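Archive entry. Fields below.
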Amino acid sequence: MSEEKQTVYPYIPNSVPTVKNQMLKEVGAKSAEDFFEDIPEKLRLKKNMNLPKPLLSEFSLRKHVEGILSKNKTCQEYLSFLGAGCWQHYVPAVCDEVNQRGEFLTAYAGEPYDDHGRWQALFEYASMMGELLNMDVVNVPTYDWLQAVATSIRMASRITGRREVLVSRTIGADKLSKIRDYCKPEIEVKLLGYDTETGQLDLDSLKVEISSKTAAVYFENPSYLGFIEAHGDEISKITHDHGSICIVGVDPISLGILAPPIEYGADIVCGDIQPFGMHMQFGGGHAGFIATRDEKKYVMEYPSRLFGIAPTSVEGEYGFGDVAYDRTSFALREEGKEFVGTATALWGITAGVYLALMGPQGMREIGEGVMQRSHYAMLQISKIKGVKCPVFRSTHFKEFVVNFDDTGKTVEEINRALLRRKIFGGKDLTKEFPGLGNSALYCVTEVHTKDDIVRLVDALKEVVE
Amino acid sequence: MKRYTGGKPKLRRFHQARWDEPIIFELSSEGERGVLLPDVEDEIKSEVGDVVSTIPESMRRKQPPRLPELSQPRVLRHYIRLSQETLGTDLNIDVGQGTCTMKYSPKINEQLARMPQMTEIHPLQDEETVQGILEVMYKFEQILKEISGLDQFSFQPAAGSQAIYANASIIRAYHEARGEADQRDEIITTIFSHPSDAACAKTAGFKVITLYPDEDGYPDLEALKAAVSERTAGLMITNPEDTGIFNPKIEEFVKVVHEAGGLCSYDQANANGILGITRAGEAGFDLCHFNLHKTFSSPHGCGGPAVGAIGVTKELAKFLPVPVIEFDGSKYHLDYGRPESIGKVRAFCGVAPVVLKSYAWAMSHGAEGLKEVAEIAVLNNNYLLNKLLEIRGVSAPYAKGKRRIEQVRYSLEKLTRDTGVHSEEIGLRAADFGVHYWTSHHPWVVPEPCTLEPTESYSKADLDEYVEIIRQVSDEAYTNPELVKTAPHNSTIHKIDTAPLDDPSQWAMTWRAYRKKVRKERE
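PREDICTED_STRUCTURE:
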């Protein structure tokens, strides 16, 4: 805090030199150096850090950052058919209005009194998810679907005392990578085959692999590759017959029309709420949910916070608080269940807003509307010469695999050509699923009009025919 | 009562918003709609027919979800009311949430992060079309390298705890690569490091050894020497610790662990007071992490979204999560081809908008500004410490007569002994004056604790006001303890009966469970 340094920083009230000096005097310090007396001289940074020149004015900062961001091409400027875990759905204005409120945006970890609104909003989020899933317990959201499934598997392992998990081979590579890393210390991951015609989980493979060592079986609906898994009942029955836990991952925006997984035997359901009012944000809008029945053996294995409703001293007034706090690492450090900390609460609140806006009718309409559009897209794409679409003979929800083997062109070449036409083609699956040949995963949602789909089909025709 | 005397704040006649707002389901009115969806064109409908009937019977939803039915203004009003019942940092002198670094989150950064060039980009777009966000991430990585003295960063972990987990996973991968993973199964931490340093290490498969402080509250070097062995995988600690005390022997700590063959990981959740002052690199650390939602100002969002940026030395860079960002001098590129990587920690590249806000914040300060952040945060803390120690019943255990870095773990043990009022109750009464007050993580090694961290964002007058509140509550505890014990009095709600929250027959984590279990309503 040398005398010659005169910049007064707008975010630092006490950077005013006279105030600073007065405060130093009051605490009996000559300079800020006095406060760092415990830091050995040898560890002190002697030079100024070598950082870019600061942009002190808000104007120059805005100009600078806008300049960099202008190099991005958005899915508003380009027509995008990318999905694969991050989806372009419409974000209602009220979702953004609520999550930019300073009260929610800047709150953190207050008590159920000073932050009552935050507790209620997150309880309501869990409650609306509970209705969608027909399940009584939903966590305060975790980081994303990857974490949600990895934790679901470890919960299942603790509940059963078993150390193997069986996972459908149609799972995405990133999620599988996360599961392997997170389960490594305790659980072996085994993959289950699928029917190459339909994509459906191979029940024979399941019967061969499942044993008294199996903690859980995990599959997704709709699957990562977009088709609907039709044999949920059979899978869960085989799973339960071996004393294992059935975990189902679900894209929750399908649940206005698809059955809640508990109806076909799921014990733990997980997934991502990004479709519920979060912009894609280069993958920044994810948040994972975990849901179970209200049974103590399940509840006590959640690492996440669980917000419960409780009475207050005033009749009819609602209060909130942590349920079974003593299971968490906040209470017990390494003796708690996994770990808990900051996660994605603001996205949970936003997803609550989304579900409140949509209501039961909205959820049905969006499910049906998405399906109609994706089915229309599949029909049109399938008419292109040399293109197979969808690759799997099953019912699809919003995503589907397109195969280009007979076009003589690679997905990379096709996507480059589409890019020149301001279209983001589907995710290239050639490395992730070599068995599918030259294929891409396309995604169609309610943001796509008929004209958008026709534009894609015309462009594809130009490129491959 | 005059509110201000000579610029000095007096106690505020605060009352929090109390809307008595029902649970959202109670507001439902059949048939109302909050938002309408775009029509599906007739050509599409006629061509595809009844698609829902193509869903296998057992996979079709039979009963619509019992979501509330609400008009748009009703939804908005509900949530705005709930927001008003939430004490965000924007509203209060938020020095009371210690360890959380509740600083000002600049509005300009929020606006930038809400531009379509940030919000409307998909993580799998062709790299050429996302050069802007990759540039932001790459440039911020260079800034963190300079701040930490380490060599490479990943922004994938989505919060501090996930960052600690990722670092524990990298430590595991390092020992695996050397064929020592089975032998090296112990992580050492200290009791005044965040609970996640212990919990994440355990989750990653390690046994945890926790060191307790010496008499002066400093991490105990002799205890560390006794703890290390050929089983030591690593050390995971904060510094300064949650007491606000900097470990002066940190270099020896690192040396002892290195000599035993372990790695050292620096939890920099408490970095706000040492920016530009001292670095992980010089102290010899192999890994570190920063909480971008703390030190780097991205808003806390009621508990996320967030980023735990992890940094490592060159030697460990090959283990970082994929992808990492590379720059060839003209283009930015995502590199997935890293066979020894621990793989994915979080989806895609992490929470990019949080990185953007942190980059903007760092750029608005520069090297001198960041050092000013640290110096003022520490000055504010020591100013607050001086004033609070004048208050009856308040003490700051350990390191007697020494300064602290950016926060202090106080003890109200004497006040409790004198008055019967507990620290937690002091906090609830402080809320009556419009501020937070946090006890501390468990276990309470410091009896009747309270952890305050004033950051650089508060003025002298703000700090004086906070001190006045604590002085007032202390006076009340000594003169009228019932007033404090029955607090809060000016809150949104009244005293909560927490017993049901630990009773499986009564707890209810959703409205449907509440209706069934507590109201005994039939399905």
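CURATOR_NOTE: Chain B touches chain A through 218 residues (CB under 8 Å).
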